[in-house]
């Protein structure tokens, strides 16, 4: 089969690799019908995620068709259309039993496209398939559902739930990339009083307004003053960090009101200062987290009910074989305006579960 292979810092290629095969009785082999790229993939290519070895097939978000299952898999069968979660779950360890799948100690967690071959391929082996894939309700488009593999559960769990957004709250989302935009969408499920988005890029801020931000501020235009002005100088009830750099994290902790919540979503590569000399007296709650994807079944039901607007987020569509071009477009978002790029082909309209070569 063909797959997108990480070849070392700065290099990826869409190339021939061996077809995946069932290795463990809990595995499923899934044919990839819709797949997206993530900012994390760009970090891997830049060399920021050293655990990813050259030769690794990247990708941790996809929707596909189950082709084959190991003998222990009960929840899905060949022919089923499934969402592949960015987080795999052994189901047995202490953390999985608390639905904290992101912290799985039994071989799951974020493994796809990281520690094992991932979804940017024609086929993928998914471990612990019973808990790591989700049947997609009929009527839900694969190119919508694929947004629930990572960005929606991340924004919802690590941003909205950790930030405990409540009706009437003033919510600030710093960073209006795919995650920040999904945080705006899912924060609205709780009827906040006002959502303020902050970004450097005007096209991202206009996407934020289309998705329901009430006010936006360019990072250079004194967003802290805007938040102060809109809250009688008090600060926001909830501030979400969806960038991952020290300046934005520190800004979030200055924007929160006494008794408010700062939910960090961003992946940080550098130390950020925690100004306890200012914060100790403010009763502030600060949360961090890796997504668990425990909310994915609920988000799929909301999507099936038409209650989760997602269409705005996929700005570019490609055939699977155009993977390298998709990386170029996604990697130059400031120039191309890309938010999410999705790949998949009309070649996969019929469900054909005859074993693919090498998977049986
Ligand atoms: N915690 C988790 O489980 C988890 C999961 C997935 C992704 N993430 C992280 O969430 C973060 C957001 O992901 P994304 O895919 O939306 O990333 P992205 O890079 O596409 O978006 C980040 C946005 O922040 C903006 N930005 C950059 N510097 C800024 C600044 N100084 N002030 C204001 N805005 C600024 C950019 O213009 C961009 O729109 C990343 O750090 C990503 O690694 C976390
Ligand atoms: Zn991701
Ligand atoms: Zn586990």
From TrEMBL:
Cofactor(s) of this protein: Zn(2+)
SUPFAM superfamilies for the chain: GroES-like, NAD(P)-binding Rossmann-fold domains
GO molecular function: oxidoreductase activity; zinc ion binding
Keyword terms of this UniProt record: Metal-binding, Oxidoreductase, Zinc
Pfam families the UniProt entry points to: ADH_N, ADH_zinc_N
Domain Enoyl reductase (ER): 8-343
Gene3D superfamilies named among the record's database cross-references: Medium-chain alcohol dehydrogenases, catalytic domain (3.90.180.10), NAD(P)-binding Rossmann-like Domain (3.40.50.720)
PANTHER family: NADP-DEPENDENT ISOPROPANOL DEHYDROGENASE, ZINC-TYPE ALCOHOL DEHYDROGENASE-LIKE
The family this protein is said to belong to: Belongs to the zinc-containing alcohol dehydrogenase family.
Protein name per Swiss-Prot or TrEMBL: Alcohol dehydrogenase
Organism field: Streptomyces filamentosus
